[in-house]
Amino acid sequence: MTSGAAIGDLVRASNDLTARWARDACDGTTTVLSGAGAWPLLAFLAAAAREPGRSELQQAVGVDATGAERHARDLLALLAGGTAATAALGVWTLADLPVEQWWRDAVPADARGELTGDPAADQARLDEWVTRNTGGRLTGMPVEVRDDTGLILATALSIATRWREPFEDAPLVPDDGPWAGRDRPAAGLFVSTPEVDRLALAETTPAGPVTLLTVHGEDDVDVILCLGEPGRPAGEVVGHALAATDGRYPASQGAELVEKATPGVRVRTIAAFEPGTRLNVTAARFDVAASHDMLARAGVFGLATVSTPDPRGHLPGISPVPLAIAQAVQDVNATFSAEGFRAAAVTAMSAAVMGAPMAEARALDVRFDRPFGFLARHRPSGLVLLAGWVAEPQDWPDGTV
């Protein structure tokens, strides 16, 4: 893929990463992940890395490493431009870390910040960034600021949409399967609709037939529920369902499914005032949270080489100081309720300074926490434009923290 990739190619590349991750990480236990949150960070790293890490990252993101930083910005702009989803990028470098001009140009100015070298204070600032950019659904930066941290990259995604056609809360009592025989009913949802084309079947995936149900949000985000045959590996069902939504497999829709064996679907005859077919949907509510150590699956993300200690470093496009990825973590949660869908994902990677120990330095901390004066000076001429004194501080606004 060339550096002039269209936005559709970038969406496909990000979706491919999500599918690979899902096939590897969805092991049948409850989890949730966001390849779209990880893809831009990996693209930035691919553009900045040297070989052999550059090729590994390039393969993971599915676009040419040359120009990948532009694609990262394009994908983030696409996410940020929606009505139901928001996206934020944050890149923080140690205040005295030499940074290449290319990197300054690659990272948007409003996304750049500095690490002071005080891990506790920096961690608090990064945690606040997460809270602000996820509407409080997540409150902590997934990676830890350490003494050797020279760089942190993060994305924050947030989704909030209401269903176009809300569900009703209803008890869920399965007749068979692993959820049958519970002591209490499960929390379920129900809706009946004439929009039968919201249901589809991808028959020919490598995971066997997969049922797909599209739940439309009022904004520009839908949620697609997917179901495979009993016993099929979760990762395969999710990965190939994603591929089906990308059009990789042919799909039958709506009334066509009356004559097809479709996982999770039972066809019956009912009395109705008008002829036709209706779609009755019963699903379990869910509130899912997960944390992923991406370095535990470094090969999926192209991080195997760039996360190894090397005194030469792996990211010369960022800094002449040797750097290696030390942490890569994603925290994510999602809630599917009768009213709508809400989710947040924060993906963060930190790079540690490699090679010789850093030189000791001193910090001068100054606090203007008693009455003080000020001057406004015209730099070219030295003309003092204003002079003043602050005798009392302003009050902190009510309701803020």
TrEMBL record:
Domain Serpin: 15-393
UniProt cross-references to SUPFAM superfamilies, sorted A to Z: Serpins
Database matches in InterPro entries: Serpin_dom (IPR023796), Serpin_fam (IPR000215), Serpin_sf (IPR036186), Serpin_sf_1 (IPR042178)
Any one cellular-component term (Gene Ontology): extracellular space
Origin species: Actinomadura decatromicini
Entry protein name: Serpin domain-containing protein
Phylogenetic placement of the source organism: Bacteria, Bacillati, Actinomycetota, Actinomycetes, Streptosporangiales
Family: Belongs to the serpin family.
GO molecular function: serine-type endopeptidase inhibitor activity
